[in-house]
Amino acid sequence: MAEERDIVIIGAGMVGMSLALLLRAQLSEAIGVTLLERNDLSIPADFQDTYPAFDSRTTALSYSSRRIFEKIGIWELFKNNTSLINSIHVSSKGRFGSALLTSNDYGWPALGYVAENLALGNVLLRSISDSSEIELLGSVKVLNVKSNGTSGVSLKINQEGLVKKFKTKLLIVADGAKSKIRESFAIDSTIKDYRQDAIVTNVGFEQPHMDCAFERFTESGPLAVLPLLGTPSQPNRCSVVWSTNPERAKKLENISLGKFKILLQKEFGYRLGRISDIGERSRFPLSLIKANEQVRQGIVIMGNAAHALHPVAGQGFNLALRDADELARILSNAVSREEALGDLRVLERYRLARLSDQEIIVTASDILPKLFTYRSRFIGLARSIALASLDMLPPIKNRLVRHAAGMSF
Q1: What is the separation of C-alpha 178 from the centre of its chain, rounded to a whole number of angstroms?
Q2: Mean pLDDT computed over 115-134
Q3: Is the sign of the CA dihedral 234, 237, 239, 243 positive or negative?
Q4: Is 205 within 8 Å of 234 (Cβ atoms)?
Q5: What Å distances lie between residue 270 and 209, 225, 243, 372, CA to CA?
Q6: CA dist 241 → 115, 160, 198, 315 (Å)
Q7: pTM
Q8: How far from each other are the two terminal CA atoms of the chain, in whole angstroms?
Q9: Contacts of 336 (CB under 8 A, 6+ apart)
Q10: Residue 26: is its pLDDT beyond 70?
Q11: How far apart are CA 242 and CA 264, in angstroms?
Q12: 14 pLDDT above the threshold of 50
């Protein structure tokens, strides 16, 4: 016999875990939340609340994301492992004009933050593990999913050789951009290959970053340099996301550290002095993947399974976190009205509430890389004038910053 569950989330990445905590904070204790993950979810015994290793991956968090994490009580648990973004410097290589965005102009403690994934992931995992109200199952392989219409969704899973069957009122799919669960429901997705790869690495500079993030647009793609907390061995540490064509990216991944340092210095310039250290390099193909449906009766598609974006503005996780926050609010209201959790009318309210924010952020993340890689002299001049004029047009600048920080919705 299938075991009954109220809400099942497939995918315990940062989106799935954040959603589980948001649901737990806003829904009645009588409503159960089950979280399924294919990977082992045991917390490393040697994890310490200190700075992670030099090559730790990072995530840019907007100011709105901080407010959401404060709502569920975990911001205080990992804020010491985040670096502030108090200003953002935007420029275009080889062109005049630049723009500087600062948190002081908006009265916020920061425009955003750069979180160490190790610290954030472990805080989320520990918070869920400490909650007796969230059922957490790791090392799970989903064998089968089936929509039963208004009766919910059936699942068959294998957890370390033990086969289990569940029936849930609401299934939330958050298993990544290449979601197998999304595909199993025959939900099509729009895929746009940017013909770019991102080289991701951590870099040490000669001079301190002073909590400033840099977005530099080059002819081959955007280059982001984000402030990180320092370590005893490298006090001036930054995270670099360098997007370029696949052929060049492959070379950048494999050339010597010395040659890589020279090329990166040439692209970024000397705003932070000379590059002193280069961490391990990773390469990731870039594409826009957007689910053509995000809700069905008893089903919600979330996170990268719903929209995987170009990293140009660091908006992917922040957009997904706002989605999760809104879904938890909508479901809480539905419960108070005694509506079914998986009712399509309830889920449509969520979809419509998130439509505007999603369209703006997805469109901006799609257009920006193309806008700054056109080689036309006319377009290049227009870009330079736009950047140079931004500081002189406060209303436009204010709107852009509030959208980027997630504070317009």
Answers
A1: 15
A2: 89
A3: negative
A4: no
A5: 12, 12, 19, 21
A6: 15, 37, 6, 13
A7: 0.89
A8: 44
A9: none
A10: yes
A11: 9
A12: yes
